[in-house]
């Protein structure tokens, strides 16, 4: 996830681990350093779930599905650690009925009718892309510097957030392909009102919001194209594919 979230998790690990060792040295608790991790990683799951839920509430960028799942999963692990109930990490399969619940909720938000499909060979004849990230990166990617130049982008990540603000960019007079692929994360794209664009967004589990058209649940897909896209010279051809997370495209 984002860099700030990683810092918070690291701070929590250091605080809890160090505090427990102090109490152990004072013989106030019976504690060994090897036991730290079994308490720490459930807290990380809880924090991750809360982050997704809070981001959804405050910024409409998170995910109810993954937020609620990790929050519940981490909470059950913590209850096990404090001997309230029996639940180990291998018991995650017991939560499979949640899929039924999520699918049920997905029926409340139907998919939008598909618009015109983008061309399959959108990279044909394009110059080598300047903006590229390899498929094994983890972390946030932000493109929001004043007057940054837009060139073909092929962004790939195992896990992380993508924030792309085209309203602050210099966009050349041409059709520019933008590809974003990630296993897990949030994608937030801002596009000026005067820039024609088309979007092809797919998420295996999560949600999509493209200029107010929304789809949430399992195996969701949404396509959108502005009315003036075909005749425009300067335009953006955007493809976003996520295994899990949220996709949001906003006009500004």
UniProtKB/TrEMBL annotation:
What parts of the sequence cross the membrane? 5-24, 36-54, 61-79, 95-112
Domain (LiaF transmembrane) spans 10-111
Record domain Cell wall-active antibiotics response LiaF-like C-terminal: where: 138-249
**Which InterPro entries does the protein's record reference?**
Cell_wall_LiaF (IPR016975), LiaF-like_C (IPR024425), LiaF_C (IPR047793), LiaF_TM (IPR054331)
Q: Does the keyword NADP apply?
A: no
UniProt keyword annotations, A-Z: Membrane, Transmembrane, Transmembrane helix
Q: Name one Pfam family in it.
A: LiaF-TM
The molecule here is called Cell wall-active antibiotics response protein LiaF
Q: List the gene name.
A: liaF
């Amino acid at each position: 996830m984002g860099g700030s979230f990683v810092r918070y998790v690291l701070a929590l690990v250091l605080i809890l681990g160090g505090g427990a060792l102090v109490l152990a040295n004072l013989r106030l608790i019976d504690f060994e350093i090897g036991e730290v991790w079994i308490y720490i990683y459930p807290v990380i799951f809880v924090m991750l779930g809360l982050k997704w839920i809070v981001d959804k509430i405050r910024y409409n960028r998170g995910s109810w599905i993954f937020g609620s799942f990790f929050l519940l999963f981490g909470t059950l692990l913590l209850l096990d650690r404090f001997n309230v109930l029996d639940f180990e990490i291998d018991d995650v399969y017991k939560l499979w009925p949640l899929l039924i619940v999520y699918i049920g909720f997905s029926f409340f938000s139907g998919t939008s009718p598909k618009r015109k499909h983008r061309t399959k060979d959108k990279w044909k004849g394009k110059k080598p892309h300047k903006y590229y990230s390899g498929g094994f990166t983890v972390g946030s990617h932000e493109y929001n510097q004043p007057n940054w130049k837009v060139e073909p982008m092929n962004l790939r990540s195992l896990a992380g957030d993508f924030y792309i603000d085209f309203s602050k960019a210099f966009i050349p007079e041409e059709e520019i392909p933008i590809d974003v692929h990630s296993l897990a994360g949030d994608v937030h794209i801002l596009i000026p009102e005067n820039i024609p664009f088309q979007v092809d967004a797919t998420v295996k589990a999560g949600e999509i919001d493209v200029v107010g058209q929304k789809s949430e649940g399992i195996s969701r897909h949404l396509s959108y194209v502005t009315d003036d896209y075909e005749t425009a010279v300067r335009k953006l051809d955007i493809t976003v594919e996520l295994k899990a997370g949220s996709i949001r495209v906003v006009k500004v």
